Amino acid sequence: MRRTTSTQALALRSRIVLACATGLTNKEVAVQLGISMPTVGKWRSRFVDSRLDGLVDEPRSGRKPTITAEQVEDVVVATLESTPEHATHWSRAKMAERSGLSKSTIGRIWKGFSLKPHLTDGFKLSGDPMFVDKVYNIVGLYLNPPESAVVLSVDEKSQVQTLGRSQPAFPMMPEMPEKRTHDYVRNGPVVRRPRKCPAATHVHTRHTGSGGP
């Protein structure tokens, strides 16, 4: 049998009090409402002692939480505003070691606040004043390529971890992962020429206007 809701229980207690107010005895009220006499006596006495406040359930005693609100706040703030040493983001193990809580507890806290330190989204905001023109040119090569066209893309490969991003990252927030640009601060390409190749390589770059490639 499903337990009555708090609203239904409060309505029954109100009917008990109203029936008692008409001068009926506990037994008569119990018969009229189809409940037990002890139930009528309990809520009659509670109403006499505390009036309407006596009809509300008292706070139930239970096991006290083992994790304080301060500990939860510490984990959330540390996740959002710091990173562990020699790492780019927090893991459950590292945060558990830092906070003294279990890894499963860290996972529940992160889930409760929709925090996902392991996820990163990308974004790019171009500061090039000719960005739109360049996009038209590049897209035009695919939509309407000229005859005998050759497109060469030359980019630096630094072979180092890209920590120096070209723009600041958007910090992680609840329900939103950290966002970083896909590119980084560039220092120019370094070309190594084979010993047996005396000829120099010349790389020409040109930005065309709207007239064509």
Summed up, the helix count is 7
Series of secondary-structure elements, N-terminal to C-terminal: HHHHHHEHE
Q: In terms of per-residue confidence, which ranges show pLDDT below 50 for 5 or more consecutive residues? A: 189-213
**What is the first-to-last residue Cα distance?**
78 Å
Give the strand order of the largest sheet, numbering strands 1, 2, ... along the chain: 1-2
Which percent range fits the helix content? 25-40%
Q: What's the shape?
A: elongated
Mean pLDDT: 75
Overall tally of structural domains: 3
In terms of DSSP E residues, the strand content is: under 5%
Describe this structure in words.
This protein is mainly α and 213 residues long. The chain folds into 3 domains: 6-55; 69-118; 121-189 and 203-213, no CATH class. It contains 7 helices and 2 strands, in the order H-H-H-H-H-H-E-H-E. The protein has a two-stranded parallel sheet with strand order 1-2. The longest helix is centred in the first third of the chain and has 16 residues, at 6-21. The protein starts with 5 loop residues before the first helix and ends in a 32-residue tail after the last strand. Mean pLDDT is 75; it is low at 189-213.
Any descriptors?
single chain; 213 residues; mainly alpha; 3 domains; two-stranded parallel sheet; 7 helices; elongated; disordered C terminus
